[in-house]
Amino acid sequence: MFDMTRKNSESELMEIIRDDDYEIKSGAETMDAPSGDDQDPNQRPKKKSYHRHTQRQIHEMEAFFKECPHPDDKQRKELSRELGLEPLQVKFWFQNKRTQMKAQHERHENAILKAENEKLRAENNRYKEALSNATCPSCGGPAALGEMSFDEQHLRIENARLKEEIDRISGIAAKYVGKPLSSFPHLSSHLHSRSVDLGASNFGTQSGFVGEMDRSCDLLRSVSGPTEADKPMIVELAVAAMEELIRLAQSGEPLWVPRNNSTDVLNEDEYLRTFPRGIGPKPLGLRSESSRESAVVIMNHVNLVEILMDVTQWSSVFCGIVSRAMTLEVLSTGVAGNYNGALQVMTAEFQVPSPLVPTRENYFVRYCKQHIDGTWAVVDVSLDNLRPNPVSKCRRRPSGCLIQELPNGYSKVIWVEHVEVDDRAVHNIYRPVVNSGLAFGAKRWLATLDRQCERLASSMASNIPAGDLCVITSPEGRKSMLKLAERMVTSFCTGVGASTAHAWTTLSPTGSDDVRVMTRKSTDDPGRPPGIVLSAATSFWIPVPPKRAFDFLRDENSRSEWDILSNGGLVQEMAHIANGRDPGNCVSLLRVNSANSSQSNMLILQESCTDATGSYVIYAPVDIVAMNVVLSGGDPDYVALLPSGFAILPDGPAHNGGGILEIGSGGSLLTVAFQILVDSVPPAKLSLGSVATVNSLIKCTVERIKAAVMCNNA
């Protein structure tokens, strides 16, 4: 249990207030909305309550403001201690005071400018009157001044400006957009009269955004940062969410109910009684989804907090779950040189590795705090109430984790996930795993974190373990190969899901075995071959346990049974790096010895990883010369990769003792994804033959996998 004085100081942040001219609503007001049957439509809303600082606090801060309007973190911390306030409260008071002084200064300047404007207007009227009465000295008639009127001159200037703007935009469009989609072949007559829109995106660098593709209509990119008026309410919401997370992480029954798959789920009725305010009642059409898990991971608490608060590291470590993420604004960087008190507004898109499961988009605030016993906590909570979105299909109630430091660089992590989501668009074969919480729940987040911590520990090892093959001759070469594999995995995970940044097109309306394709343009990126890249993916169910499917696909000895491109050649493992306790977590370098001696041998970089919630087998052909540079410790960022591979999920939480007869009885959900360079010239047109070839390749691979695993399962 946390110290009561600390909890009192936490609750004070819910009453962040300004001076006389800057009053704000309390957290109780913003979140105390009646829900369900408790709401009376005829009842008049309660009168809003306001809170103020004490006169002494205002006097002291006013005096300090005169000496130093911009106090640093140390000064704010000292002042907050003297006045009995939180550093965030002091920070926002000074922000509001500076805003007030600026507004007063602007009002004074506006009054001066208004007087000047009236003076000029009067002079202008006198000139107009004088001009209207002017006469021609030659004929005595009205004078023709020979110059255009003011309105005409203004219209000419505006017209020239608009023309220049049109020319500029046209130039940008011609440079970056390229040819219109109409320049692609019309495939509709060949594909069951379905219109095919294969949007070609550019693989350029995206400022501040983690993710590989970009569309102008993207919902995540349309969200802007919070306004100044929103910020105090965001602080109150974050503090309330932190208190709720602590209680959720530490409470037992009746708030949490054990599930038969060892995961705790919330008792929703008890939750509403315990937290009556929250972020408001659940919107119609949304389903509650909650889970809690705990585990010990091999990483110290400082590094864990840094991963969670740095959007780039967070997206990289959880690349299988976070398809894209962005920090909109950092409201506080924390105090005392760490993330204690850090507060940032973010957007993120969460995914399952399949185009058959829609992603979940969230607009939320993330708050980090170190508590009196040394435990760290990081909480997320949606900000939909500040900016209601009628099409929002997912919102996060207080979710996050508690991190407790353990000896020898280990940490105990308790993870809580609590969301409300509209998942009616999920494909039928994925419904059991999504409804069970395995797809987006706490168990998947924590299993991914545990596996990635093991991988990071392996990558930082200074010695080469005995299990690694001798092709890797130096620690530098080992690190370079792991870094290259990490980029390959991230690229695969970002491109295989149903992200709104993807322009997937279905080629055949036959059900779950639909093959979905999209084209992407790769230019000016040393990490990818230049040209038109065609991606194809499909998901299907097989009556085989996930572990058996994973072992079959990662084994180089069975590769010839499904890999058409190896052409029946012998596959030999040239290098092996173990990066986890499970033997399946490893990075390998494979050589495919072609049966045709006239063909050159091919190298394949492969990473396989597995945990309780899913598995991946991801691979990419690599150039022999480039791979030699990597093995000698060279920079892996310049090795061109087009990753393909497999994502394997359990088909649900249940594992029957008998045979696997239907979805949800212990089988596997398998996603197959390929990326192929169809033309090395970026402006080239996509041919129908290329689409047909990739379609045939993925269909044939699926049939080979089904035949092989069913034969082995018999």
Mean pLDDT: 76
Helix content: 25-40%
Q: Which stretches are low in confidence, meaning pLDDT under 50 for 5 or more residues running? A: 1-39, 144-148, 172-217
- Class per helix and strand makeup: alpha+beta
The total beta strand count reads 20
End-to-end distance? 55 Å
> How many strands, which pairing sense, and closed or not: the largest β-sheet?
10 strands, mixed
The Cα radius of gyration reads 31 Å
Share in β-strands? 15-25%
User: If helices are DSSP runs of H or I spanning 4 or more residues, what is the number of helices?
Assistant: 17
Overall form: globular
Question: What does this protein structure show overall?
Answer:
The protein has about 725 residues and is an alpha+beta fold. It contains 17 helices and 20 strands. The strands form three sheets. Strands 1, 12, 13, 14, 15, 16, 17, 18, 19 and 20 form a ten-stranded mixed sheet that branches. Strands 4, 5, 6, 7, 8, 9, 10 and 11 form an eight-stranded antiparallel sheet that branches. A two-stranded antiparallel sheet has the order 2-3. A hairpin with an 8-residue loop joins strand 16 and strand 17. Helix 10 crosses helix 11 and helix 14 crosses helix 16. The longest helix has about 45 residues. The two termini are about 55 Å apart. The relative contact order is 0.10. The N terminus is likely disordered.
Keyword list:
single chain, 714 residues, alpha+beta, 10-stranded mixed β-sheet, 8-stranded antiparallel β-sheet, 17 helices, 20 strands, 34% helix, HD, lipid binding, homeobox, DNA-binding, MERISTEM LAYER 1
